[in-house]
Amino acid sequence: MSTLRMTSDLRRQLILDAAKRCFARHGFAGTTTKSVAAAASISEGLLFKHFPTKSALYAEILAEECEADPAMHELLGLEPSTETLVVLIRGMVHHFMQLSDAPDQHDAQRLRLMVTSHLDDGEFARLIYEKIGGLLGPVFTASLQRAVVAGDASRVGREPQNLFWFAHHTVLMAALSRLPAIPCLPYGDAGDLERQICEFILRGIGLSETAIAPHLDADLPPHAGQPLTAESA
């Protein structure tokens, strides 16, 4: 039984490795499950036993990248607290606001794919939300709870996980407006914009003014200001 499981796990990883090469070379639209199967030297039917759709395959690759990201590891290792909550929001905002300036544009393309999915069948977006929510949702909700207990925040609504998604959607749409060569909205100075978005989100999820300023102005941990890979999807 363990040998069969090992074989299945190895085959799954071989498929993912082949898919990474195909997506890197041809992009999401230019890659087919048939081409991935050929690159992995398996049948397309066998590929579907591991990944039912191309979107599922791509979402798994993004999840792997996210889990291997030093910034993500550092964030997930922090104790839940008001400070951790602010670090998470600052990292999310910084990542999204840098998408339009990144030289390789891979993350910007993923953001476009995410938006397109909302206008199509939503499959890719649902998969990405599931991955992001599973990784960062518990950090957010536990830290928000600690902030409430510490008197740094007030409760907003009955579903704290929704506050995480409200924050995510806010910064996602702000980033989307900056993707075209001529931005849809002239937000102004990038540094001031990041801080303003952070303040807007932190106030919206219930943090008090006295809690926001010291944590927002504090130095970030070494990797925390770097992109959180899966956030770009």
How would you describe this structure to a colleague?
The chain folds into two domains: 2-52, Arc Repressor Mutant, subunit A (Orthogonal Bundle), CATH 1.10.10.60; 64-232, no CATH class. The chain is globular and about 60 Å long. The chain has helices spanning 2-30, 33-39, 44-50, 54-68, 70-76, 82-98, 106-119, 123-149, 160-177, 190-204, 209-217. Helix 1 crosses helix 2 (33-39), helix 6 crosses helix 11 and helix 9 runs antiparallel to helix 10. Residues 223-233 have low confidence and may be disordered. By secondary structure, the chain is mainly alpha-helical.
Helix percentage range? over 70%
Which residue ranges are poorly predicted, with pLDDT under 50 across at least 5 consecutive positions? 223-233
Rg, alpha carbons: 19 Å
Number of domains in the coordinates?
Answer: 2
SS summary, helix count: 11
Q: Note the run of SSEs as H and E.
A: HHHHHHHHHHH
Total strands: the figure is 0
Outline type:
globular
SS content category: mainly alpha
What gap, in angstroms, lies between the N and C termini? Answer: 36 Å
What does the main sheet amount to? none
Strand content: under 5%
Q: Overall mean pLDDT score? A: 85
